[in-house]
Amino acid sequence: MNSQQVKDLDKKYIGVFKRYDVVFERGHGSTLIDKEGNKYVDFFSGISVNNLGYANRAINAAIIKQLGNYTHLSNCFYSEPQVKLAQALCENSFGARVYFANTGAEANEGAMKFAKKWAMLHKERAYKIITFYNSFHGRTLAALTATGQEKFHKILNPMYPGISYAKFNDLKDVESKITTDTCAIMVEPIQAEGGIYTPAPGFLKGLRELCDRNNILLIFDEVQSGMGRTGKLFAYQKYGVKPDVMTIAKSIGGGLPLAAYIVAEEHADVYAFGDHGTTMGGNPAACAAGLVLFNTVKKPVFLKSVERKGACIMKRLKKIKNPDIEEIRGAGLLIGVQMKKGAQDIVDKALAAGLVINVTGHEVLRIEPPLNISGADIDKGLRILEKLL
Fold first, then answer.
1. Which homologous superfamily is 3-55+300-388 in?
2. pLDDT band at residue 129, thresholds of 50, 70 and 90?
C-alpha cells in the first residue's frame, strides 16, 4: 500500500487520534523510514516505549523464539518468561511481588484497587486516593479521574468517586487533603505527560513521611519515568524514596503491550486468590522481550550512558538563544522545553525536516529518544531542533 491508501483506510478508525502527516514503514535503531524512503531521527520513541530503538535484534530474537513455543498461555498455568521477568524486577527494585497487566492505565487501576483492598485490611475501609494537578495516569475511568487535568474529564460524568487533587511540589497542600478516609497517595516522580515537571528537593521524601505518619500507601506511577529513562533503573532510585507500590509500563515489553505493578514485602499478601485477574497480562512473548530489555537497561554502564546523553542534550539546548524558551527541565533522556508559544508549530516543522518530537503539557516540547541512541543521531536531531529554535 502507498501512503495515501493507508490514510484513506484510516477513516475506518474511530477518530480519537490526530495523526501526523507521515506513514512510517520501518525503522532501525533511532531512525524511522516512511513509505517514500525518507529518514527521520526519532526523539520520541513511541512515547518512551521503544527504549532500545527499532528492529532490535536481541528483542526480536527473543520474541521469535517464544512465538515458536506458544504465543499465549492462560494465567491459570505457569509461564517461564513471566516468572523470570518477575524475578528480575523484584531483585532489582524494592519489590517482593509483581502483577503483570497490559497497559499503564490498567496497571494504575490495579494499583488503586490494591490500595483499597489494603485499606479494607488495615485502615477501616478507607477508600480515598490523593493524586496531583497536572498528572496523567491513563485513559480508563478511574485512571482518567486520577489524572489531574480538567481537559480529560469532559466525558467523565459522574467522575470515579474518592479522588482528590493536590498541588505538585506543595507538601502543605497535600497534607491539607489527607483525611481519615485516605488510603493512598499516587504520584508520578516526574510529571511526564503534564510537561516534564521534576520534583522539588525534599518533595518525594516529604510524601513518604506524610504516608508513614498517616498510615497511607505511597504509589509511584513510573509508567514513563521507569526502565532507565532518567539514568537510573527507576526514578525512585534517583530521588532516594521507596514507594509501597510502583507501576511500570510502556518500554517494559520491548515494544509489545506489557505493564506491571510491583509491591513491597510488607504488602505482599494483601491480595488473595480471586481478588484480581487478567486474560492477556504477562503475555509470554511480551515478557520474553521485556527480559531482554530489562537485562540491557539495568547495567550500570548503560545507565551512565543515559545520564551522559541527557546531560549533553540539556547543555546544547540551554545554549540556544530564543526569548520564547521559558525553561528546560527533565532528567536523563526525559526532557521538556517549555515554550511561551509555538511548540506545535516547531513539532510540525521538525517532522518536515526529518526529526520526530512531540508537544505535551502546556507548550512543552517533549524529547524522549531511545536510550541507546547514538551520539551521531543525537547531533543530527539537535542540529535540526537548534535551527528551528
1. Aspartate Aminotransferase, domain 1 (3.90.1150.10)
2. very high
In the chain, count H helices and then E strands. 13, 15
Report how far residue 191's alpha carbon sits from residue 101's, in angstroms, rounded to the nearest whole number. Answer: 22
Annotated domain spans of the chain = 3-55+300-388, 58-297
CA 318 centroid distance within chain: 25
DSSP-based helix, strand, coil % in the chain, nearest 5: 40, 20, 40
308 to each of 231, 248, 271, 313, how far by Cα in Å? 8, 23, 41, 9
pTM > 0.90: yes
| Residue 281: all three cell numbers together | 497480562
Q: Three-state secondary structure along 168-237?
A: CCCHHHHHHHCCCCEEEEEECCCECCCCCECCCCCHHHHHHHHHHHHCCEEEEECCCCCCCCCCCCCHHH
Burial pattern 48-81, b for ≥16 Cβ within 10 A else e, equals bbbbbbbebeebeebbeebeeeeeebebeeebeb
Q: Which CATH class is domain 58-297?
A: alpha beta
Residue 137 near residue 108 (C-beta atoms within 8 A): yes
CA dihedral 60, 61, 62, 66 (to 10 degrees): 100
d(CA 133, CA 197): 11
Q: Are the CB atoms for 194 and 298 separated by under 8 Å?
A: no
Q: Cα–chain-centroid distance for residue 348?
A: 23
DSSP-assigned beta bridge partners for residue 217: 184
Q: How far is CA 343 from CA 316, 331, 364, 366, in A?
A: 18, 20, 6, 10
Residues listed for the chain:
389
Beta carbons of 334 and 230 less than 8 angstroms apart: yes
Alpha carbons 100 and 257: distance in angstroms, whole number:
11
Cα 345 from Cα 389, distance rounded (Å): 11
pLDDT in tens, 54-108: 999 999 999 999 999 999 999 999 999 999 999 999 999 999 999 999 999 999 9
3-state secondary structure at position 145: helix
